[in-house]
Each structure stands twice: as C-alpha cells, then as structure tokens.
C-alpha cells in the first residue's frame, strides 16, 4: 500500500484544550510503503504544573519538561511531518483536537489530513478481543510496549498496530472488503480509503477462497466436517489414580502435588460410579476443575454417556473449553470432545444478518456492529455472541439477528446448513462433555424444552449461585424497557420498523387498511404502557424502601390482594386497559397472519422473511400479557412480589418481579430426583463447616449426598494478615457521615503503606458515596486514583480495567464486587471489609424469606441470614489471595465480628490466617513492619 501515514501520540495535562490543558509530550512515527522510515519526539513545556494524576499515569514530571521547548518551537516541524500524509492516532479525535487547538493558538491553519483512528480500525478488524486500549491491543498482538502513556512509546506501538491491521485487512475475502467499504462511508475516520486501496490490490490477484463459503455475497468461515472418534480408554480410573503423579508430571512442567485435588477427584469418581449426588467445597487453588473433569471424562467415554458441566460465568466456560478440557485430554492420553451449548439467542442467524445488512443505517453503533460481524464471520466456527466484543448499542442490533424464533425459511436449504445453533446441537449430541450455564440448564429442566441432549450426570460449578438462578427462572419479571424495545422494533407507519416494511410489501397488493388499524393500536400501547409504568413508579416513590446494596434503586414489596387505595386501583384499571388492548392487538395480528399464510406461496422469500419477523415480534406480546396478569392480578402463597424503580432515572424506569421464596421442593422433584449424579462444587458451600444450609436451600435433604470439604493449599499464615481495629466505632453508634469520614481517613492511612492497590467492600451504596466524597477531599494531591462503583461509573468491567491500569488505585465497590472478580497478583494487595455482608432486611426477597421461616417455627437469623452472610463473607475474602505468590492484608472494620456471639462464625469460616485485633494505630505499625518483610521476600 503506497501511502504515507504519520502516527501521532500526545501526552497532555488533561482532557480538554478548551479548559486550558496543554501538550507535555509530542511523538510522531512516519510510515511509507509499509515501513517505518522516520521518528520524532519531544517533551514540551506546558507553562503550567503537571497534575499528580497525570504524573502517576505518564511518569512525566515537572522537572522533565521545565527545559523542554514550547509548542510553537516545534510547530514548523509538525507541519512538515504532516504534509501529504494520513493523520493516524489511537482515538484520533483526542490528538487531532489538541493539535489543531495548539496550531490555531500560534496562528497556523487547520490541518486537513485524512484521519485514521486505530481504535475504530481495530474494533472492526479484531472483533473478538476484550478491549481496544493501546496496552490491550499490544498484548493481543504480542507487541512490546516499554513505556505505556509516554508519547514516543505509544506512537511506536500505534504504528506497529496500524501495519498489522492493514495486513489483517489484506487477508480478508474480497466480498467482505466490498461490504466493509459500503459501511465505511458512515464511520468516523477515513478507513474507507484504506479499504478501497486493498480492494484495488486484491482485484489484480487471483484469489483462492478455500477457507470460506460464499452465501449471497457474504463470506463465512468454512466448517470442517468433524469425525466422531470412538477410542477405548487405555486404563480404568483406579489404574489412572495409581499412576496419576506420572501422568501429571509428564504433561505439567511446574506440577504441584495437591492432596486436596486427589481427594476431590476420588469423590467425583465415587459419585459417578455409585450414581449418587455430591457436595464438594474446594478452596481457591485446589485445582477443582481438573479434579472433576478427569473422572467425568473417563466416565463419559467408558459408559458412552454425556456429562454436562454447568457454570455461572462466561469466563469459566471459556477457561473450561480453551484450557482445562484440553489439558484433561492430554493427561488422559485420549481424544476428549467437548462443546459449549447455549440458548438460541446466543447464536447469529446468517439469514437475518444478510437481510439487515442491506438496510440503510444512520446509527453508528449498528453500522460498527455490522462491520465487526462481517469480519467475525470469516473467523468464527461457533457463531456465539460471547466471542464478539459488541459496541454498547450493538445489543439491540443483535436481538434482531440471533437464532431465537426461527421461521419456516430457517429450516430449509441453504439456511439450515449454515445454522450455528444447529451445528452446536449436533456437536453436543456427539460430545463427551457439554458445557452450559445454570440458566439454560434450569430452563431445560424446569420447562421441559429439551434444550440440551438427554443426560443423567451433571457437574454444577460455581454452585453457590444455583439456588438464586433457580428462583429467577421459576419467577416472572417485566419492565418498561423490554416492552418499549418490542414496540420500537415494530415501529409505526411514520417511523422506521417492521410495520413499515410489511406495509411496503402489502401496498403492492392493495391490502394496507388493517395495517393502519394496527398502527393506531401500537400508538395506544406506547401511551398506555408508558402511563402504567409511570403510575407504578410514583406508587413506589410514595411507599418504597431503598435497599442498601442496590445502586440508586428503590423497592417496594406488594401483595396483589392486600394493596388498597385509589392509586392502586388506578394501577389495576390501567393494567386492565393495557391487557384488553393487547388482546385486541393479538386478535388482529392472528387474523392478518392467517390470511397471509394462506397465500404464502405468492410472496417472495424476502417478503416471507419480513412477515415472519413481524409476526414473531408481535406474538411476543402474548408473553407480556401473561406476565402482566401474573404480576398484578395473581398471588401465590410461596411467592414474593416487588417493584423496583430508579428514582433519578426516567419516570417509567420501573421493574416488576415475582419469585418463589423457596425452590427446594421444585429442585428436588424436577431436577435431583430425575438425575443419577449431580455434583455441586464451589469455593464457598459450607457454613460452620457444615453443608446443612445449602442442602436445605436446594432441596437435597432426602438424597443424602456425598460430602467433601477441602481447604485451599495456599499458606495463608504467610501470605495474608487480618486486622480488626478494636477502637473503631460500632456502625450504629455514630452517624453515617461520621463513620464514613473516619473510614475515609483509615482507608487512606492503610493505602499509604500498601501504595493503594486496594479493594474496599461496602454493603451500603450511600456509605460508599459518602466515603468516596470524603476521600476525594483528603486525597487533594491526587496521590491515589479513586474509583467508586456508581460514582465514577456503574460498569464493573470498566472499573476493574481502570483499577488494574493504575499503580496506586483504590476501588470502592458494593454488592457485585464481593465475588466473581479476579484481580491478578500485585494489582490487589489490600482488602477492606466495611460491614459484614448481611442482606438488608427490608429487601423484598429477604423479608419474605424471613417471614416464611418464622411462620415455620424456624430461627430466620440462624437458618438464613447468618449462613447467607458467611458465604458472601468467604467470597469477599477470596478476592485477595488467588495464587501462591499473592500477598495481602485484610481489614475488617465491623466490630460485630468479635463483639457478638455469632461473629466468631465469620472468623471460623476463614482459612488458617493470622488475625490480630488491636487499636487502629497499632495495626498500622504492625502492617508497616510486615509490609517491609514481604516486600523484601518479593
């Protein structure tokens, strides 16, 4: 590609030139004919102090720039570099705006170079990577990045990324490039010019496309025909067990002998052999995935029966498929087939995508999503959404192109041969191990939908979530946004949507009158549903409680037969009107559908597809009608119902829930009684060294499951220290303001020793906000980067990424940070537990659970609140030490852990670790000494 690119990177004193921020470092890398031919960089004197936050991020300080040139001194050089070149940058709008502003300030003309944004280019050409920050791309592409956030290093890396992305573009099929070019006209940078050049080059070559199949101008990665291997196992489990050290040593170079792993492996084999259920608590680091996979795989192959492995998180599914199952196969020395199987909505429909690809789009996220999918289809063998990193607005587009609700067209040629969902199901029927998620597993069991192939043996990992997911799956929920989304997809005759597409088809046949009536009904449904959810919203504002752990949400537990007053009557009256309107709408839809289907042969295939999508979306309102009735007009003895609202959000941001208070009986009858072996495992299943709590919650009391609890092999006595400040006030003895102020000081005192790298776990969002505010004042020199869930952002993944990016960061989190996050190594050195994680008693589900237990003559605190809090406490503690190399300190500020009779159970739940209770200033002295010692060891 005979083009000149100048890759620019700037370091600045802040984010806005309009607010006086200045450039402190300029760097440029020049590329010609695909080679780096020149480099230029310079520090710049901004004539103002560099903020501590920027100094920490860039490691550029005032001394480094005080003798550097001013921007006006290098401006001629910059302009000379930019002549007849593309302006390339990672997030080009930022660098270009700063540079333009500086040039204007010194009397120079605007730059008119075509901009290329490597962020935008990477998002399209690398659709499956986790993130598009410069360091993430460098890691993904194996590019050495010596000094992140210094302009010369960043520009060098960006230049290498650009060259690699151009090479990637050249590998794409010509038909994909042409599709991308048509979309590129609506992108933010001039990527289309690059694509056009590559197209010209490829058109001059004879392209071999043996890796792809082509379908109506769409290139798709060719699927290999999978051969089913039926190999005999060369040994029994007992024989393998006798030689297990040899097997592991031959495959694993740094093999660590863990007796806990062998204990678990033996019990899993026993459960499969004797057709019993089992509960296994396996501490962090025991190697539990291999411990259950090896006996499960041997049983599956030997007995020719499939074993299902169910997880709660996508990350564990990926780890199982990409790492653990491959390793298990090597250790066992025979081929092991495994497949991930998810619900239809996870898989792309090639037919639907092709149809929408032709639609004109003005929405940037939809255009970007189309471009990413075009590239992804040349790579994917699964068609699974979880592979692709969609933009924030891409989810709405995905809802229109996934395999959910297939039509008659989808089960015909050629589409059935290109169905990723059907391929996954076919692979699942042949696989030894089927990996799935708790939700799909429970949908399969509880609704008899036959979503999974028949199986009798299942391993449930992350089992501490199983009861919660079962309760959600057996419950019902509804919110305004989901209804609004359906109505928006249908659209109207005045706006974009399915209705106008149907109208265009029907206008050929002069049959549009019914569509005008449907259009009127859609308008009425919009208005009536909006009014209904607004009315419920105001009802909750009057009556609701604010749960401590839910960020900004109010909740109100209601009883359909006990609510009274004119406001409630108005809600029911409006809900009845919505239901009558829905039934009239559905009656009309059925009538129109019957007429169209009677003459389906007279319509083109494209027109049939439009009808199918339209009627499919319309029929989704049957479910809305059912849910409305269930949530507002029905009442079950074992169910709890509640509303939630976002008081600072839209006036119709309202959520309705109904869930069973206990799922024990349903799980016992519908799941455990029908399976030969169910193994439930997690790092946190026991309370007071007993499985009684989880046995009762899951309905396992009649099954007498095998039980095993193995501790983590980590040396917590050497790796961790726990401090309980004895002079910290009881949380209810002072105001929230006073407690938060003292907590803020204490956090920063500990952070000054550990250099930040701290996670602070709250149970109250209000206290988190106040503590964050006080810390912001105390941290006026910005020594630490402060991150607060719901304050800086609500996005958990974004918070974790930002936390790991900075050396001296403090992250304040609530409910979702107590578990399921894995911050590696030295990035996390201190954990602070503000309060013991009891669920707020005013939360609707908790209140209903407590009532039920009391009515049954049980002690709700001992039988429910305490066990639940201990399990969550163990999960929170588990965030700190994730490997043998980790070191860290835990502070527990809630004095109930030592001042109450039940507090000892929290401490007893921890592994063998050094626990010290003393005055806070004394803990700092101890910590200072210990921290020096472990720093020397490292």
UniProtKB/TrEMBL annotation:
Intervals of motif DEAH box: 461-464
Matching InterPro entries: ATP-dep_Helicase_C (IPR006555), DEAD/DEAH_box_helicase_dom (IPR011545), DinG (IPR006310), DinG/Rad3-like (IPR045028), DnaQ (IPR006054), Helic_SF1/SF2_ATP-bd_DinG/Rad3 (IPR014013), Helicase_ATP-bd (IPR014001), Helicase_C-like (IPR001650)
Helicase ATP-binding domain span: 247-509, 269-487
SUPFAM superfamilies for the chain: P-loop containing nucleoside triphosphate hydrolases (SSF52540), Ribonuclease H-like (SSF53098)
HAMAP family: DinG_exonucl
Pfam families: DEAD, Helicase_C_2, RNase_T
Binding site for ATP: 282-289
Cofactor(s) needed for function: [4Fe-4S] cluster
NCBIfam families linked to this entry: dinG_rel (TIGR01407), dnaq (TIGR00573), PRK08074.1 (NF005981)
Purpose of the protein: 3'-5' exonuclease.
E.C. number(s) listed in UniProt: 3.1.-.-
Similarity section: Belongs to the helicase family. DinG subfamily. Type 2 sub-subfamily.
Catalysed reaction, written as an equation: ATP + H2O = ADP + phosphate + H(+)
PANTHER family: DNA REPAIR DEAD HELICASE RAD3/XP-D SUBFAMILY MEMBER, REGULATOR OF TELOMERE ELONGATION HELICASE 1
Keyword line: ATP-binding, Exonuclease, Helicase, Hydrolase, Nuclease, Nucleotide-binding
Enzyme class: hydrolase
GO molecular function, one term: DNA helicase activity
Full protein name: 3'-5' exonuclease DinG
Residues covered by the Helicase C-terminal domain: 746-928
Keyword match Nucleotide-binding: yes
């Amino acid at each position: 590609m005979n083009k000149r690119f100048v890759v620019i990177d700037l370091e600045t004193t802040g984010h806005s030139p309009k607010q006086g921020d200045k450039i402190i470092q300029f760097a440029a890398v020049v590329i010609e004919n695909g080679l780096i031919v020149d480099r230029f960089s310079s520090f710049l004197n901004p004539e103002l102090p560099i903020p501590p936050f920027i100094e920490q991020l860039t490691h550029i300080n005032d001394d480094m720039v005080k003798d550097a040139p001013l921007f006006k001194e290098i401006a001629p050089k910059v302009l000379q570099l930019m002549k007849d070149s593309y302006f390339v940058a990672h997030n080009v709008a930022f660098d270009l705006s700063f540079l333009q502003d500086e040039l204007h300030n010194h009397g120079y003309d605007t730059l008119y170079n075509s901009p290329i944004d490597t962020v935008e280019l990477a998002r399209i050409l690398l659709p499956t990577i986790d993130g598009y920050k410069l360091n993430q791309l460098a890691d993904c592409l194996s590019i050495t990045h010596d000094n992140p956030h210094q302009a010369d290093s960043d520009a060098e890396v960006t230049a290498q990324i650009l060259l690699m992305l151009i090479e990637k573009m050249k590998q794409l099929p010509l038909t994909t490039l042409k599709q991308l070019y048509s979309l590129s006209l609506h992108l933010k940078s001039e990527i289309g010019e690059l694509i056009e050049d590559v197209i010209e080059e490829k058109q001059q070559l004879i392209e071999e496309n043996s890796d792809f199949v082509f379908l109506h101008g769409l290139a798709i990665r060719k699927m290999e025909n999978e051969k089913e291997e039926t190999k005999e196992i060369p040994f029994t489990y007992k024989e393998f067990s006798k030689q297990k050290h040899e097997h592991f040593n031959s495959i694993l170079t740094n093999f660590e002998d863990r007796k806990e792993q062998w204990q678990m492996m033996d019990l899993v084999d026993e459960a499969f052999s004797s057709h019993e259920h089992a509960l296994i608590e396996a501490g962090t680091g025991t190697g539990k995935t291999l411990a259950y996979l090896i006996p499960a795989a041997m049983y599956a192959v030997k007995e020719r029966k499939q074993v299902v492995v169910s997880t709660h998180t996508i990350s564990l599914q990926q780890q199982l498929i990409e790492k653990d199952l491959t390793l298990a196969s090597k250790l066992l020395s025979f081929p092991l087939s495994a497949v991930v199987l998810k619900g239809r909505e996870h898989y792309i429909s090639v037919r639907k995508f092709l149809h929408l690809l032709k639609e004109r789009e003005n929405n940037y996220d939809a255009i970007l999503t189309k471009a990413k999918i075009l590239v992804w289809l040349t790579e994917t063998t699964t068609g699974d959404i979880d592979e692709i990193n969609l933009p924030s607005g891409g989810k709405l587009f995905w809802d229109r192109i996934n395999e959910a609700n297939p039509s008659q067209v989808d089960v015909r040629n050629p589409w059935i041969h290109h169905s990723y969902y059907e391929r996954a199901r076919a692979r699942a029927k042949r696989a030894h191990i089927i990996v799935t998620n708790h939700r799909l597993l429970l949908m399969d069991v509880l609704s008899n939908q036959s979503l999974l192939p028949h199986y009798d043996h299942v391993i449930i990992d992350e089992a501490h979530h199983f009861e919660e997911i079962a309760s959600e799956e057996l419950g019902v929920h509804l919110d305004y946004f989901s209804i609004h989304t359906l109505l928006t997809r249908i659209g109207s005759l005045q706006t974009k949507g399915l209705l106008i597409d149907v109208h265009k088809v029907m206008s050929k046949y002069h049959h549009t009158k019914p569509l005008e009536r449907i259009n009127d009904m859609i308008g009425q449904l919009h208005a009536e549903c909006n009014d209904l959810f607004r009315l419920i919203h105001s009802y909750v504002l009057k009556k609701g409680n604010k749960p401590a752990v839910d960020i900004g949400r109010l909740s109100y537990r209601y009883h359909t037969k006990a609510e009274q007053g004119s406001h409630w009557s108005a809600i029911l009256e409006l809900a009845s009107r919505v239901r009558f309107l829905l039934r009239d709408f559905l009656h009309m839809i059925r009538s129109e559908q019957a007429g169209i289907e009677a003459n389906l042969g007279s319509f083109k295939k494209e027109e049939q597809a439009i009808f199918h999508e339209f009627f499919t979306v319309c029929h989704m309102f049957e479910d809305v009608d059912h849910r409305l009735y269930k949530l507002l007009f029905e009442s079950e003895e074992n169910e709890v119902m509640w509303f939630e609202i976002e008081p600072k959000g839209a006036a119709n941001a309202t959520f309705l829930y109904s869930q069973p208070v206990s799922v024990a009986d349903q799980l016992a009858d519908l799941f455990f009684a029908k399976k030969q072996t169910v193994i439930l495992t997690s790092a946190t299943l026991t309370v007071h060294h007993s499985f009684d709590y989880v046995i009762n919650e899951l309905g396992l009391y009649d099954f007498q499951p095998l039980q095993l609890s193995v501790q983590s092999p980590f040396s917590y006595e050497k790796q961790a220290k726990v401090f309980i400040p004895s002079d910290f006030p009881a949380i209810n003895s002072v105001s929230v303001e006073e407690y938060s102020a003292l907590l803020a000081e204490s956090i920063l005192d500990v952070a000054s020793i550990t250099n930040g790298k701290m996670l602070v776990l709250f149970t109250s969002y209000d206290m988190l906000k106040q503590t964050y505010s006080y810390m912001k004042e105390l941290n006026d020199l910005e020594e630490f980067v402060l991150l607060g869930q719901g304050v800086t952002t609500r996005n958990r993944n974004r918070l974790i990424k930002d936390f790991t990016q900075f050396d001296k960061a403090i992250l304040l989190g609530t409910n979702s940070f107590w578990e399921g996050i894995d911050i590696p190594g030295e990035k996390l050195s201190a954990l602070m537990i503000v309060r013991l994680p009891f669920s707020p008693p005013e939360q609707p589900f908790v209140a209903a659970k407590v009532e039920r237990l009391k009515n049954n003559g049980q002690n709700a605190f001992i039988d429910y609140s305490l066990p639940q809090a201990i399990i969550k406490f163990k999960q929170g503690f588990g965030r700190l030490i994730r490997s043998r190399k980790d070191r860290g300190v835990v502070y527990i500020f809630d004095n109930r852990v030592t001042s109450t009779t039940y507090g000892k159970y929290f401490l007893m739940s921890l592994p063998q670790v050094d626990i010290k209770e003393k005055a806070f200033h004394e803990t700092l002295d101890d910590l200072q000494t210990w921290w020096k010692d472990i720093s020397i060891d490292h």
